[in-house]
Amino acid sequence: MLRTLVLFALLFGFGFAHGQQLLRQEYSFIGRGLGVTKLRQSHDTLYFFQAYPAGLTGPGIAKAKALRVGDHFKIIAASRTGKFDVLKVEKLDTLKLTSTPYPETRYLLVILNRQSDNAIGFLPQRLGSTKAQIDTAKVSDEVMRKSFYFTYFSDAYMKKLAELKRVSTKEQAQQILDEMKSAEWKVVIEKYQKTNPPDFYGSGFISEFINLTCIKSGYSPIGAQMAINALLK
What we know:
The chain is an alpha+beta fold. Helices cover about 35% and strands about 25% of the residues. It contains eight helices and eight strands. The protein has an eight-stranded antiparallel barrel with strand order 1-2-3-4-5-6-7-8. The radius of gyration is 19 Å and the shape is globular. It starts with a helix and ends with a helix.
């Protein structure tokens, strides 16, 4: 009990120091298509961009290389416990076509799991909270350890992933799907179900599942989901 109380004090007793760098490089989440969602910190702000991995070539990609800005969040408080960072953030993007472009419920928590030198886990929680609710929110170390996270890869590791062999045959695509049915991945599915992260139609989970399975099987996850869908349709 005392340990938990100390943790809560650490998480919510300190504000965010201006210039505190939690992310020292960009990280990318590999989604359904050829593009990725990039996560970047600049001073006290987290930015999300839609981009293409370095070195990726193909029809139309050269013209679409420019980053497209997505959501951005102001970090109003942050603290670290072990390999986890807990951030209290304020969504800075305005709601379109509404009389309340900055609603009171624009706050949330973000948990970063420093999984390795190559990857960081990302988990948003308490979406739609008010400032008062976020100020008094509680997160235990047990919750952080047992939660499901979306894996964002470092830029250096993304270059290595781009060099792996591509899923290019029906047999390879089926191999990936068969691996996804193994008992090992049932633990990941259970974590996802218990965590219940915000994930529109489960698209993030499907991408996460395919990405990790491809890497485990020695294939590049970049563009893999699109290739598997095309090969097995």
